[in-house]
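In the previous chapter we treated chains in isolation. Here, by contrast, the input contains two separate entities that must be folded as one system, with a combined length of 671 residues.
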Amino acid sequence: MKKKTITKAKKYTIWILNFSILGLVLTSLFPLISVPEDDAVKENLYFNFEMMKKSDNYEIYSLVDNVNTINLLFWAIIFLGLISYFCITYLTFLTRWYLSILTIISTAIFIFSVLLVIFQNNFMKTVANNDFINLSLIFNTITYVHIIFLFIIFILICSIFYTLNIVLDLGKQIFSSIPKKQLLKKKKDKKEDSPINSIIDEPITQPPIGINKKLEIEKSQKQEIQKIDIKAEEDTYPEVKEEIKPIETTSEEKKYVNNEIAVSEKKNQPGPFGHVKHEEKPIEPVKPRPSQSFEDALSSAIEKKQGEIGKKEQKKPTSQETIKDSEDNLKEDSSEPSKIDEVEKQKEETQTEKKFISTEIIVKCPQCTHIFTINKEKNEKIKCPKCGKEGIAQ
Amino acid sequence: MRNDEYELDDDSLTTEKKNERKKEKILDETFKKAKFLKEKKTINQKIVKSIKTVDRQFLKSGILIIIVAITMLIFVEYSPWMYINQETDDGSTIHLLYRDFNQEEEINQTVLNLFQSPCDNCSNNSQNYIGLTFNDFSSSPKTITNGIIILMILGIVFTIFLIIDKFRRFLDEIVFALHSLFSIAVIIVSLVILISSIKFIGTYFLIYHNWSFIEISGIKNANIVFLTPIILALIALAIIRGAIITFKINFREMENKFTIDSPEEPYSTYRYGIKFR
C-alpha cells in the first residue's frame, strides 16, 4: 500500500514539475498577444512577455500584471513540487506523518493549479474582450496561449490525481487505525441505547492496562470470588459441610493404598474409614464381548481394566473388613447361615476378578516401543494403536 | 507363524520408505531456510555496497557542478551573446555582440536599430520589434553570473561537507537529505539562468512574425544567432535533468536502506516441500 502510493506520488510530482517548468519557459518564449498596426506596415505586431513589459501602450502594459501572477504561480508550483519530491525521498522513510505533510503539499499544488487556470482564463477573456488586442495566432484559431493553457490543464489533472491518491491513502490509514470494536460500539450505540449494552462495552473501551494493574485486578477478583463462595456456604448450603468430610479422607485413602506398611499397621484397627459407610455392590461377571474390529476390543479392555482397578482399590480394604466381621459374627452366632453364604460368594467374586486380570497382557510394540494391554483370550491379530504395526502376540 | 513374520517384514519395509521420505522433506525444508537466510545476508551486503557508491556519486556531483559553473562563466564572459551575419549590397558583414557591449563601438546602425526602433511615424505600441534592449545585454548577464556564482558556492560547500564526512562519518539520512536539498537549490538557480537566457531565444519567434517591421529599420537579409543564451539554456536544462536524476537515485537508495524488498520472506516455513507460510 505504502510503496504504491509513494511511487504514484513520485510519478505525479515529476509530471507536475515538468509541465510547470515547460509552462514557465513557454510564457517567456512564445508571443502572447498581437496588435494590428496601420502605420507604415499594415500587419499584426506580435508581443511576448518582455516586449509587453517595454511597451508604451497602457492597455498592453496592464496585461503584464496578469502574466506576472501566472509566472509567480508557476514558480510556486515548481517550488512545491520540489518540496514534495524532497518529502517523498526523505520523510517517507523516516517519519510516520509523511502522508499528512504530502497531503498539505498536494492540496497547495492543487489550489495553485486552480488559481493558474483561473488567471490564464482571465487573461484570455480580457484579451478577447479588448478590440485593440488579440491573442497571437499560430494556425487559424489556435493561439500560443492555448498551448500554455493545455499545459496548465495537465498540471491541474496531475495535481487532482496526486491529491486524490494521497488523501485516499491517508483516509484508509486513519480508518484502519481505528479499531473495529470501537466502530462496532459506535454502531451499537446508534442502534440500541439500552444500559445493558453500555455495561458490556465498557471493558472494550478501557485503555491498555499495565502488568501491575492487571495483577491487582486479578487479586481483587479472586477475593470477591472467595467472599461469594464463603457467603454461599454459610447461607445457602449449610448441610454441605457434613457431606464434605468423607471427601477429605480420600487423601488418607490414597496414602493407605500406596503405603503397604501403613495398611498392615492399621489392619488391627476397626478401619480407617470407620465412619464411612461403603455400599457393597454386586460385582458383575466378566463376559468376553465379541468385537468387530480389534481396536474397539482393545479400547474396551483398557477401559474395563482401568475401571476395575479403581473398584479394586476401593473394595480391597472393605472386603477384608467384611470377612473379619463375618468371622467374628460366625463365632458369636453360628446359627445364621445366610452371612456365611455371603462371605463365600464374595470370596468367589474376588477369585474371578483375579482370573480376569490375569488374562490381560501388557505388550510392547517392537517398532515404536509403545506399551499397551490386550486380552490373551482373543487370539487375533494385534495392531499397535500408535504406529499401526500388526502382528500376533505369543 | 512364518507367514506372519514375512508380513511384518513387508510392513517394516514400507515404514522405512515413509521414514526416508520424511527425512528428505525435512532436509528440503532446512535447505530452503538456509538458502533464504543466505539471500538475506547478500541483500544486506548489496545495500552497503550501493551506499558506498552513492557517496562517491555525491562527491562527483559537487565537483561536476563546480566545473559546469566555471564553463558557464567562461561562456558568459568570453563568448558572443549575439551573432549577426548581415548581407548588404557591398557584401556580408558579421557582427559579434558580447555582454555589456559599448554602443559607441563600430557597430552598424542597422544592427542597433533592432533594439531601438527608428520609425518616427510608427505607433507608440512598442519601442522595438524583437523584445530586447541594450539594457538586456547588461542586466541578464549579471543575473546569470550571480546564478553561476551561487552554483559554484553550492558545489564548494557540498564538496567540503563530503570531505568532512569522510573523516567524521555523518548519518546516511543526513547526507541524503542534504544532497536532496542541494539538488533543489541547484534546480531553482538553473531555472533562473534558463529563463533569463530564454528571453533571448524568444526573439526568434518575434523575428519570424515581425520581420516586415524589422525590414523597415534597414535589415533585409540577416542571420541572427544568440549563441551564449542557447548554450546557457541547454546547460541549465541539463543541470535540471541531472538534479531530477539525483533525486531519483536518492529515493532508490533510501528505499533500499529503509525497506528491504526481499524476493521471499527469509523466515517462511516449509512443510512437505510446500510453502506453508
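Strands of chain B lie at 82-87, 92-97, 221-225, 270-271, 274-275. The longest strand of chain B covers residues 82-87. Compare these points with the single-chain example from earlier in the chapter.
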